[in-house]
Structure formats: structure tokens, C-alpha cells
Amino acid sequence: MENKNAWEKYPDGEQRKKVMDFAEGYRKFLSACKTERECVSKFEEMAKAAGFEELGAKIKRGEAPKAGDRLYAANMGKSMVLFVMGRQGMEQGMNILGAHVDSPRLDLKQVPLYEDTQMAMLDTHYYGGVKKYQWVALPLALHGVFVKTDGTVVDVSVGDAPEDPVFGVSDLLIHLSGEQMEKKASKVIEGEKLDLLIGSIPWKKEGGEEKEKAKDTVKANILRILEEAYGVKEEDFLSAEIEVVPAGDARDYGWDRSMVMGYGHDDRVCAYPSFQAILNVKEPERTCVCLLVDKEEIGSVGATGMQSRFFEDTVAELLALSGKDSDLYVRRAMRNSKMLSSDVSAAYDPNYPEVTEKRNAAYFGRGLVFNKYTGSRGKSGSNDANAEYMAQIRHILDQRNIAYQTSELGKVDQGGGGTIAYILANYGMQVIDSGVAVLNMHAPWEIISKVDLYEALLGYEAFLKEA
């Protein structure tokens, strides 16, 4: 059984222009939003423009939600959930799109700044599953926040504007790499060697006199720059969240411009069409939800990850406003819900055919990907969706001629991975993984197909309206 190439649905002209225009909006979003904070901030801005109201305002008024209400709640600036209220009561279930907005990267340590041989460096700790050797000899940018003890939040974004400097992790020259080249790939670059070079000019007072003749004058110069630019001091790194990400915009990829190369496709390539899909919902029968969470790349832990009770608590707040202030109503709402866990799949790579089984692989250009199960080896850690639910999803997509395919994450004994699906399934709801196929997954620069992105939008819209 072979799926057709989805590009065949869009011959040259207005139809193909819709695919390209949607991909261009996504490309700009991906270029501008390289951290979970930036994603949530942008989505919140777009939600307000589309008529969504912050849930806290409704709670303050004590006003019961009604069909068609568009509401959202943000969680610590790193995760959020959006609702379009349905005609049915929430306890009868919701149609949920869930994706994550964090991506693999390098984070600055709490005490990161030091000087060595008159070079100023920043110490890092990698976040999520990365091949460490891919992060050297690249132009890198710094995005994040300093939070001062008085509560002031100072945004930082350096390395992406054309006039900005960039930063980087150095690599060993090939001429002296004899021992390095003998190491396993996992050891070629050690985690503690992913330190960022950020400066090399010593600090001097006016008139040329050195501030400190003996030590750390380059570090002192960097601190001077930080204080002048952001009003922060060295101790403010203790309460900072600064992420090291690839510098530069996402780009069209391929001579035919059929693909997008950028940082953070995993999982913003699913978060973006999920968000756009709920913007297009008007007055649904069942309440529609777009859930965008943090920390998936490190196990969905913490107050902003899927394992927190943020989503459950927000559902409880809405039910309470409706006069259904009971844990039983919350459990009914969750149990009766249906969800697409919108996360990426590994695309078949002709350069590495040995890790995938061709009949059960995801391919560029063949539409939205469904993974009945993820996990590793013997399905360990997976959700493994019900066949009945998969049949319902197939029916919805077939009725609308939406291109889709099914996939596994590589050969059985090759490796594996997980998503947020199993966490929501713990409530008893129907959940299946769906998303967009990605090449170079978890590398600094990943690649997706524009037509797969567009089919994801169509599939997510159909699910919200008809599931």
C-alpha cells in the first residue's frame, strides 16, 4: 500500500499558492520564535487579535462560559491552552490538539561566565536529546531573560538581527584531531566542552589604563557591555534563563522551494498548525482545545510540562464557572475527550535507509503522519492507540480528501522515543500521535515539507470540527 504524493493535489496556480503562503507564515514564525517563551508570547498576541480572552478575566467576573466563547490561559509564560467553547457541556468531552513548544538546545548554567587565556566564555548545559558534535563551529544566538531581584524581567535576543554579533562553540582543527577522530561519536565532543566563546577584548578605563592588571579583564569588559545594554550584573545570571540556539532565519530549502530548513521544527511545526486550526474554529459542537506545553524534550516534567496539573486545573476552572464544581465532572470531561498528540515523526532518509522499515516509515510529501504507537523496542513507554479510534480518524480524513500516512519510529530494535500522548491517555481519553515528518530531527537545522505542513493544518481543522 502506497500513499500518493500530496503535491499532486495542488497543481500550479492558486491551490499551490495556499500551500506556499501558509508555509511562509510558518517560516517567519519559526525565525522569530526560538524559545518556548517567545512562542507563547507570540501565540498570546495572535490569540488576542483573534478574539480570545484571558480566562482569568472571566473568572474574576464570575461569568459562565457559553458556546462560541474563545478563551485562553497561559502558564508561567512557557505553556498555554486555548478553548473554543462548544454547544455541548465540557463533561461530554473535548477535541484536543496537543503539541510542545520547547526544542533541543544549549542552556547557560547558573554561574556561566568565566575567562581563560583572555577569552571570555559561557558555560552551558545541553537540553534534550542532542548529538553534541553537531553544535560546534556554528553561528549561535542567545535568547532568553534575566530576572532581577526586584522582579524586573529583561529580555535578551542577540545573534539573529543582521547587525548583531554571533557566538559559537569552537572545534578542534583537523590537523590536531588524531585522538579525537578515534573516539565514539557520543564522545567526540563532551558536554563540558560545549562552552561558548563570547569576547576577547580587555576592559580599559578612559586614557588606556587597565582596570585590573592581573586577571579577568576580558570578562570585566563583557560585564560592562551587559550592564550598559541590559542593566544587569554578573549575579543576575543566577536568576536568568538564557538559551543558546542556532543563529539565522529559517530558509526555503530545495531548488523547488518545497521544503523549509530551520531550528525548532520539533515541535513547532505541529504547534503552529494546531494553533492556526483553533483560530479557524467558530461555534463547534464539542469544546475545541489547543494545548501547547513545555519540557517535552526532557520528559514533560516541571510546572510547565504536560505532567503538571495546569491543563486539568484549567478545565476544572471552566467547569466551576459553568456550575459544575466537582472532581467528577473534571474526570468525565477528560475521560470523554479525544486528542491528537501533535508531535513530529522521523522522515525516511535515503542516506540512512538501514534504520527504517520502508512499509512503515514516514515520507516527505505524503501528508500528515499518524503513529499508532511510539516508545522503544517492545513499545515501551508508548500510548498505542485503539484501532477503533484510528478508524474514526481515517474516516474524517478520507471524507475530506486529506493526505495522511502511518509510521513507526524506525526499525523495532533501532531505538525509539516518546511524546505527551501517554500522559493524556492516563485520563482514559482516546489519544493518538500525529504530526509532520522531519529530516535531521534534533539537529540544529531540521527540514520539513511544506505540503505536509499544510495537510497537517487541514487534518487538525477537520479533527476539531468532526471528531
SS class: alpha/beta
**Mean pLDDT across all residues, rounded?**
94
- Order of strands, main sheet, comes to 1-2-3-13-4-14-20-16-18
The radius of gyration over CA amounts to: 24 Å
The largest pleated sheet is described as: 9 strands, mixed
Which runs of at least 5 residues are low in confidence (pLDDT < 50)? none
**Distance separating the two termini:** 26 Å
Number of helices: 11
Helix share of residues?
A: 25-40%
Number of E-state strands: 22
Rough outline:
globular
Roughly what fraction of the amino acids lie in strands? 15-25%
State the oligomer.
Answer: single chain
Secondary-structure blueprint:
Elements lengths: L13 H19 L3 H14 L3 E2 H7 L8 E6 L3 E6 L9 E7 L4 E12 L2 E9 L12 E8 L5 E6 L26 H4 L7 E4 L17 H14 L9 E7 L4 E3 L5 E4 L2 H15 L7 E7 L16 H12 L5 H9 L2 E5 L2 E2 L21 E4 L3 E2 L10 H13 L4 E3 L9 E2 L3 H5 L4 E6 L1 E2 L7 E4 H17 L1
Parallel strand pairs: 1-2, 4-13, 4-14, 14-20, 15-21, 16-18
Antiparallel strand pairs: 2-3, 3-13, 5-6, 5-10, 6-9, 7-8, 7-10, 11-12, 12-22, 16-20, 17-19
Describe the structure.
The chain is of the alpha/beta class and 467 residues long. 28% of the residues lie in helices and 24% in strands. It is built from eleven helices and 22 strands. It has a nine-stranded mixed beta sheet, sandwiched between helices. Strands 8-7-10-5-6-9 form a six-stranded antiparallel beta sheet, with helices on one face. The protein has a three-stranded antiparallel beta sheet with strand order 11-12-22. It is globular and about 70 Å long.
